[in-house]
């Protein structure tokens, strides 16, 4: 079931609340705290949004919930399908703004790429989302609701599903809502995803990385690197002017890792900008001693001036330099490039939607 938000419906939307929030909302209706746990499982574990179908609740309570509340997540307005099987969803929010989320298909798994903001404030030079600016933060229900919306488009076995907070926005700029959504996603009575299958990607917001390291459970960490020197990175990623590579790498070195866990560094490869063998050598030196792996991501052309996709041989040379220096490294050709669903290509507003 995929509920459609209705801006005329003034009932309080409970989708996105945690157990305590549901208990507070239901207090006028029931004194039994476990009723909130049951509702929690219905809306997240079973993704049922009609209280009349919540069969283990008393009939009078179901009727009262239906009268006072609703459960709505973002709805898919447009869904485009890539030649590689991936799908990009244009999702409508209740205030009319729109975000994009991507359903990526791999041989043995499916990955949902979720947005955390409408737009982004960081203005990375190679990312189309940054051209939107930041319109607003997403709430926990709007973030977790993207998973519900994409699952409604075609059921995916939970043991095949991965989540990446890697869509529109900087997740650590919307820390509380992202982590509230994360806790719903990993709750055994919620979406029941193992935490190790969820990754949060950041441009390098150091205080957020430090805070994330204190969470238990927490998603895995990925960091967008893009260049091995402060001068080059600051030109591509303005966040580096405040949080330099020294500060960023210090936070990464202090980040607590599980026995088999590594931090992923995403290196967007831009033809003639940061793709030389010397850049690869410098990247290997920069990350030496870290439990890290490097995803070399050839740039996905998105109409931004001055950037182009490097040749496959150039990407292979960059990866091979890292491998020779003892780094874990691989090339990640992005999914959905032909429909504007790849890394750095997500950018949509209600005004520009077609």
List the topology elements.
Blueprint: E1 12-13, H1 19-26, H2 34-45, H3 59-68, E2 69-70, E3 75-81, E4 87-92, E5 98-105, E6 110-114, E7 117-119, E8 134-137, H4 140-152, E9 161-165, H5 175-186, E10 198-202, H6 206-212, E11 220-224, H7 230-236, H8 245-254, E12 263-269, H9 277-287, E13 292-298, H10 312-324, E14 328-331
Parallel strand pairs: 1-2, 6-9, 9-10, 10-11, 11-12, 12-13, 13-14
Antiparallel strand pairs: 3-4, 4-5, 5-6, 7-8
Helix pairs in contact: 1-2, 4-5, 6-8, 9-10
What does this structure look like?
This protein is α/β, with parallel strands linked by helices. It has 2 domains: 17-70, DNA polymerase, domain 1 (Orthogonal Bundle), CATH 1.10.150; 75-339, TIM Barrel (Alpha-Beta Barrel), CATH 3.20.20. It has helices at residues 19-26, 34-45, 59-68, 140-152, 175-186, 206-212, 230-236, 245-254, 277-287, 312-324; strands spanning 12-13, 69-70, 75-81, 87-92, 98-105, 110-114, 117-119, 134-137, 161-165, 198-202, 220-224, 263-269, 292-298, 328-331. A 10-stranded mixed β-sheet has the order 3-4-5-6-9-10-11-12-13-14, with helices on one face. Strands 1-2 form a two-stranded parallel sheet. A two-stranded antiparallel ribbon has the order 7-8. It is elongated and about 70 Å long.
